[in-house]
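Page 42, continued from yesterday. The earlier attempt failed because a stray header line got pasted into the input along with the sequence. Redoing it now with the clean sequence only.
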Amino acid sequence: MKTRMKIEMKARIKTGICLIVIAALSSSCSDWLNLEPEDGVIRDRFWKTKEETFSGLIGCYASLMEYNMMERYFIWGELRAEMVTPTVNASANIIAIDNGEIVSTNAYTGWNYFYKTINQCNTVLELAKLTLEKDMSFSETLLKQYEAEAVCIRSLAYFYLLRTFRDVPYITQASIYDDQEFMIPATKQADIVDSLIVSLRQVEKDIAYSYNDLASNKGRFNAFSLKALLADIYLWKGDYDNCIALTTQIIESGQYSLVPVSREEVLIDGRIIGTPDTVYYVNESDISSLFQSMYVRGNCIESIFELQFGTDKQNPFCEMFLPGGYADFQPKMENFNTEYFISSGLDRGWFDIRGEGVSYKQGYIWKWIGLDKDGFNYRTIGSSFSNWIFYRLADIILMKAEALTQKAILENNNQALLQEAWDLLKQVRVRANAPESTDLLYQHTGNIDGRTLEEFILNERVREFTFEGKRWFDVLRHARRDNYSEKNLNYLLRLSILAAPPEKVSSLQNKWRNHPGSHYLPINQSELNTNKRLEQNEFYQQ
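This time it went through. Structure tokens are written below.
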């Protein structure tokens, strides 16, 4: 792997105050399996004031922004899918993941960075309450709010782990004492999902609805971002009623709206003489405004939860995507042009705004490095400040549409639910000015087919969230339904054709069809060597 720039261990939630992450947290562990304290840390050496406790909480957010975490949000969520491909500069580890030839010594199977975050959250949850005894100005209400945020951050970290590795150690005790047991076996994925739901539900009443500034509202967990994470977990579990209820609460809260993009309906000479065609021409300045507010400045009206980068904390995206021969990743352009952003004679100049100039540009991943849509101005090392978006309203709308569709399928194609889901899907497509060429229900009449709408929503998520770290998880969520029924498994098999090099497709399809364990990454060999209670995923034991 090529040498990476050192990123200083300082982060801020953009409130105008830079908070220093206390050393007890920032250095609490470098490897989750080697967390035993070196100096016999005891409780009294931790926080004595509510300000110090808050710094500890901010340290949990800061850990989410570390270089290795940021790499993994992208690599785990995108590289095995079909919209990204390695460049000639990419490391052997990156190329191996793209080829589907993943082994337990691959550096990107390392999970210790996530367990460092988890341990920091556990430390807050275990020790913050002791500050109440030392600082009379620290209220029980504020303590519970901080604890709720820590539960959310920890749950987010576990949600990434269980979707990436399946069964992982589930640890809820801080690693700060000399006499602790550090050899922890893995917990089944389904059991972790249930535990996350319980823990998030327990703190739902304690978390704040809003904070005092925009960056904190977008960059710290609040009631709505908790609901977004919880809805996502319910969707993964297949609990569609709870997913629908939570997404409805967010949509109807009035706190968020889609960034508006206006368009003009125009009648043009039709292909059939005497019958005009209708096309929609989008307002170009609105597209530029969307790109600026969502991806350049960040914290737009649509944003629910995103990491806050700035001059005192940069992300690794310039090194990962920067033009000039250094990038590790590039768009897989053939899939943009032939699969998801198709143009045809039907469109007559009508185009989807999410393609050229927003997601990609001149063969680069533009969404995270571009500074404008129309020129070719991009960020440089030293100004890599774009926020990473975990959740925004379009995601919530499409989550609800997916849950309604799955519920409808289970109810023998319930047409009322399918129509509601279709109406939600249309909201996202209208804002994107999505043309008829990608409309799987174009000129539809009669009953809606649930399976068609299911595929339509999944395809729409590709267009809407390209390079936002969601694609692999979206496809896997669909594939694993009904215990990998043939119809659902086909989502993965089709993905293999679009994602893998041609010479690797056959072997990859064999793996994905016959070995569900191959849908997850192996436990890194160093973890197995250290923790003898861990068992390797059965596929990687072969």
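Notes: Residues 252-450 form one domain.
Reminder to self: strip header lines before submitting.
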